[in-house]
Amino acid sequence: MEQAHLALNWAKKAGIMNWGYFIIGLPGETEETIRQTIDLSKRLPLDIALFHIAAPYPGTPFYFEVVENGWFRPGTRWEEVDMDQSTVLDYPGLPAERLEYWQRRAFREWAMRPGPMMTFLKSINRSTLRSAVDIGLQTLGWVKG
Q: If we measure between CA atoms, which residue out of 43, 54, 58 comes closest to residue 115?
């Protein structure tokens, strides 16, 4: 982790934006490991952080593991799934609703700090104001759940 932090600091000093992409809900995930992921995201010098729930796409080893262990949310019909809207995972002890809660909470905790807020505000100019306001309102609505 020390090397990752150092590399991200070098990139930032060189003017390169750092993005963090975090996956929540892989097999073995717990609320404690999600908490650790959120804490890590807040320690890293990131300009943008995205938090997604693991997606078991058909044909992947993860998909077969989910099928084998019965981790699909009850009533899931794959042809109707839009994983950008919700998760299909439902682990014992970490059901879909909790995964979605933690996804929203992770983004909220990371984004509602001065650094990320300043990054967003600095990106706004006359030509992007309407779009920025729309994105901000949509994000707030999603974060509230």
A: 43
- The single-letter DSSP state of residue 38 is H
Q: Which two tokens stand for residue 51?
A: 């938090």
* CATH architecture classification, 2-113: 2-Layer Sandwich (3.30)
Q: Where are the domains of the chain?
A: 2-113
pLDDT tens for 16-75 read 989 999 999 999 999 999 999 999 999 999 988 999 999 898 889 999 999 999 999 887
What does the block give as tokens for 14? 């060189």
Q: Say if residues 66 and 58 touch (Cβ distance below 8 Å).
A: no
Higher pLDDT, 126 or 38: 38
Could you tell me the pTM of the whole model?
A: 0.77
Task: Please say whether the dihedral angle defined by the alpha carbons of residues 71, 74, 79 and 80, taken in this order, is positive or negative.
Answer: negative
Burial class of residue 19 (count of CB atoms within 10 Å of its CB; 0-12, 13-18, 19+): exposed
The amino acid occupying position 35 is R
With a CB cutoff of 8 Å and minimum separation 6, the contacts of 105 are: 38
Helix, coil or strand: residue 132: helix
